[in-house]
Design brief:
Elements: H1 9-24, H2 27-36, H3 41-66, E1 72-74, H4 76-84, H5 91-111, H6 113-121, H7 124-139, H8 141-148, H9 150-166, H10 171-187, H11 210-238, H12 245-259, E2 267-269, H13 272-278, H14 290-305, H15 307-316, H16 319-342, H17 348-359, H18 369-389
Antiparallel strand pairs: 1-2
Length: 390
């Protein structure tokens, strides 16, 4: 690679690896989240296809626009949120309506700076506590899998743990492969004869309701901004890249909006894969690293075209096994969120309340527990400040 070359093979390889890791480590969570929100298998396939293509286009467009290694991903915390929301008024059509509202908020946050600043002003301990509460349900799934099927549940965890010992990025795919092998042995080779390799777009007519906006749209917007977009900008800055955040939020919001009618929930700036594309491993010269963002985007688009195979394979396995794999994939995010939530002693009690309420499954006036968890923690902080002022 000469310093005057316009294309970096090293950065392209790093981007391809980031795309593979980003898709394989969390697509189980996305499919499970969409189906938990009421999507049929075909609608979930369409949603994952739309998200993959949207985030692929986002990575390519933003990296070319900024000449920086901008990585775009689907909202993994948002998908986890969908698994805990419970009944959504209007079914999956109601969820799609909430997705559209969340995407509009993402666009406004990019254009209207005060809204973006307002989200950034939410105390980090509360945002992390809400995320930890959302993730708790799925992180308990491996234990529930052992309770339901001890041998298979333990096998999934052992495969994940041993693989993580050598390569943590391959741990979740290895656990999923173990599930596929077990299901194949149980059901025989005929289990995989009906797999559809290619995905087909399936439009869903949205339904709008106040309860879905409160329980899905607002929490989805908040976790996407607080857990993905803001950290994504921070990771770029840590590697010497300082893009204007507003346009990045706006573009990902528009791409989210375009994916929503086909079942996608949200795309945003990446966090983990952003470090892979923006770091020195992508290239010693920062000016060439934007090729990593482009390459990861192309990989996501290809995965989107073949999304049908991923959804079909997952659909063969019992849901508890898929939940177990998704839970293992989220343990790192859960532990990080919980540690960040409780590490600041000034916010520890409000954060604990936010975590407990968010994890409770509470449903009041149609709004889910994530919304009420943030409200409860915010009220506790407000009461403390009022008491000190008095």
């Amino acid at each position: 690679m000469t310093p005057h070359s316009s294309i970096s093979a090293q950065a392209i390889m790093a981007g391809c690896l980031a795309g593979i890791v980003g898709f394989s480590s969390s697509f189980v969570i996305v499919i499970h989240g969409l189906q938990a929100a009421g999507a049929t298998p075909n609608e979930a396939t369409s949603g994952m296809m739309a998200l993959s293509i949207a985030m692929g286009l986002g990575g390519v467009i933003l990296s070319l626009m900024t000449k920086m290694p901008v990585s775009v991903a689907w909202s993994t915390p948002g998908a986890a949120l969908l698994t805990t929301t419970g009944f959504i008024e209007g079914g999956f059509a109601g969820a799609v309506g909430a997705f559209l509202v969340s995407s509009l908020l993402l666009i406004i946050a990019g254009i209207f700076r005060p809204l973006g600043r307002a989200v950034a002003a939410i105390p980090a301990p509360l945002a992390n506590a809400m995320l930890a509460g959302i993730l708790l349900h799925l992180c308990l799934a491996p234990v529930h899998a052992i309770n339901e099927s001890p041998l298979i549940g333990v096998l999934i965890i052992v495969v994940w743990a041993i693989t993580a010992r050598f390569n943590r990025f391959l741990a979740v795919p290895a656990a999923l492969v173990s599930v596929i092998v077990v299901v194949g042995v149980q059901k025989g080779g005929g289990a995989f004869q009906s797999i559809d390799v290619f995905a087909a777009p399936l439009a869903v007519m949205p339904v709008f309701s106040v309860s879905a906006i409160l329980s899905v749209a607002f929490p989805l917007f908040i976790v996407t901004m607080a857990s993905q977009n803001i950290p994504g900008v921070a990771i770029l800055a840590a590697n010497g890249f300082k893009p204007e955040p507003g346009p990045l939020f706006t573009v990902t919001g528009v791409l989210s909006l375009l994916s929503n009618p086909f079942g996608g929930h949200a795309v945003n700036l990446a966090a983990i894969t952003a470090a892979m594309c923006a770091g020195p491993d992508a290239h010693s010269e920062p000016k060439w690293r934007y090729w990593a963002g482009i390459a990861s985007g192309v990989v996501y688009i290809l995965f989107g075209i073949f999304a049908g195979a991923a959804t079909s394979i997952i659909g063969i396995a019992p849901p508890i096994y898929i939940e177990a794999v998704a839970g293992l994939a989220l343990i790192g995010a859960f532990s990080t969120a919980l540690f960040s939530a409780l590490s600041d002693i000034k916010f520890r009690e409000p954060a604990a309340i936010t975590f407990l309420v968010s994890a409770s499954g509470l449903m009041i006036f149609g709004a889910g527990s994530a919304f009420w968890g943030l409200i409860a923690g915010g009220l506790m902080i407000a009461l403390r400040h009022k008491g000190r002022a008095a």
